[in-house]
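agent> Task received from the user: take the single chain below, predict its 3D structure, and emit structure tokens. No templates, no multimer pairing.
agent> Plan: (1) validate residues, (2) run structure prediction, (3) serialize to tokens, (4) report one or two observations.
agent> Step 1 OK, no nonstandard residues flagged.
tool_call: predict_structure(input=
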Amino acid sequence: MSRQETHMAGIEKLPWWGWNPGLDNGDRVLGEVLGSMPQVDASSIPWQIKWLENPTSWIALPGAITLQRHDAIHVLLGRGLRSQDEAFVIGFTMGATKVLKGWQEALFAFATKHFYPKPYNFTDDDLFALRLGFGAGQDSKATRLERFPFEDHFDKTVDEVRAIVGISLPDLHAYYRKERLLNPHTKETARLDLDVGGVDPSDIAKPDGEESDWKREK
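)
tool_result: status=success, residues=218
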């Protein structure tokens, strides 16, 4: 088993807060990686979140997306399921619309901190990742990811889908290094896929989670 296969086998056994796909998964089939993601019952999502993030809501903000497509973006961006990861993924999706206004950014940031119920509300660390995601999405070649039919591409590799939608690995590494530099103290930041000098902390360190059968290949 290769180092990457060992890593993926490990994350498939972790609880939701330990799941973290990283960026070194380009030759994996998108549907397979999504199959390792712990799932949440859509009915358990609070109505406050559905108001702003569900594409069927009449007051949804730019980038509102279905849960299945949102999960696919988690994989493409190499982010886990903790709140800081969630914030970056949402920010990237909203920024990639290329139509997001400043007042919409401010409104969403305010709502996620003060309107969303616990434990779904964002902290200041999460808001930093959200704003970083806004910028990363706006600067990327990706556009209107919420309209892209990811479900029709689950049989393609992650790298193939990244290329189709315009997500750049070097750009993501650069943004994650910035996140690590400016917000270094969180668990989410500690496991970011930085790929600095060929050494990738997210790959050589055991993901945070309960003990499992996860083992590194020697």
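agent> Step 4: summary for the user.
The CA atoms of residues 84 and 97 lie 21 Å apart.
agent> Done.
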